[in-house]
Specification:
about 325 residues; 11 helices
Length: about 325
């Protein structure tokens, strides 16, 4: 591993913005924005919303004395059987949707990275080229998600069970359960942040599967913990500032701007410079640790959508009188 020089945290942001301008605005091409926006939409896809409140379906039925008790029990059993079947189907659909979304994101993480590092607007080529690495990323994202879910279930169950029992000890147990969720949530966010900004580029640059790429990042962070911590804190500040600007613009337009950026795919295209600059920032920061972590070309110039005129051969002079094509 190459010994890096001084690691900058703020300067790479300026270089990232220069690359963003060169990729998206020099010159501006709607086709490039549409294709890059599509890959950014799938690569930067995050979870949205939650289901409605289904507690009413499990409220105990009121007692109905009299000869209708047997019929009531039969109707209640039938109702709860249907409700349970619907819930199971919805749960399976939700799990399938999450898996599909995670798979698409894992594959398009590399497609989007290919777009940023080459300027090409191809999708099929990087989709096939990074297929094995995208599959490895998908499998480990699912495994890490399941592990995180299992770890967080214990404090959640502790908080819920304590909240159902009155008393000082129960309140204390509920508070402890909620407090335990804070470091777990922070750890989960940091792991996802590290995967998006560093593990995926290392996998792409060194042609590694997820476990060795994660081990490579672990050794790199252990050798340089300060710059990575400053990078994460500075990125958090930037994300907060950008979020405030988006909210301000949205409220200034009577929430029309917020509605536009919340639309699937359309929002990714509108906010494409933000997503591109954020990814370039991580790549510019990572390349300081040596050529084995550098995916960027020296000049931040996008690949043209069509060959420039200088690449076309000059037209042949017209055949004049008395000239033959073999002359």
């Amino acid at each position: 591993m190459t010994t890096p020089g001084p690691i900058e945290v703020i300067e790479p942001l300026g270089r990232a913005w220069q690359r963003t301008r060169a990729l998206l605005f020099a010159p501006f091409a709607f086709e490039r924005w549409a294709i890059f926006g599509f890959s950014a939409w799938l690569a930067l896809w995050t979870g949205m919303g939650s289901g409605g409140n289904l507690g009413w379906m499990f409220s105990p039925p009121s007692s109905v004395p009299g000869p209708l008790s047997a019929q009531r029990d039969e109707i209640t059993s039938w109702f709860f059987g249907i409700a349970l079947a619907v819930i199971v189907v919805l749960a399976l659909l939700a799990v399938g949707w999450v898996l599909l979304r995670t798979w698409l994101r894992s594959r398009f993480d590399f497609v989007f990275l290919h777009h940023l590092t080459t300027g090409e607007t191809l999708i099929a080529k990087p989709w096939a080229e990074f297929g094995a690495r995208g599959h490895s990323l998908f499998v480990w994202r699912v495994l890490l998600g399941l592990g995180f879910l299992c770890v967080t279930l214990l404090p959640i169950a502790l908080a819920i069970s304590a909240g159902l029992r009155p008393g000082v000890m129960s309140i204390g147990a509920m508070v402890v359960g909620l407090i335990l969720l804070v470091p777990l949530a922070i750890a989960g966010v940091l792991v996802m942040f590290a995967i998006d900004h560093f593990v995926v580029p290392i996998m792409a640059r060194q042609n590694l599967a997820f476990p060795p790429a994660l081990a490579c990042l672990r050794d790199l962070v252990a050798a340089h913990p300060g710059p990575f911590l400053l990078y994460a804190l500075f990125y958090l500040v930037l994300a907060f500032a950008v979020g405030m600007v988006i909210l301000a613009v949205g409220f200034a337009t009577c929430c029309v701007g917020l509605l536009i950026v919340s639309l699937p795919y359309v929002g990714a295209v509108v906010l494409l410079p933000v997503g591109v600059c954020a990814r370039y920032y991580g790549l510019e920061f990572l390349r300081q640790f040596g050529p084995e972590f550098d995916l960027l070309t020296p000049a931040p110039l996008p690949a043209p959508l069509t060959p420039p005129e200088s690449e076309y051969p000059p037209p042949s002079p017209p055949l004049g009188p008395g000239r033959r094509e073999t002359d």
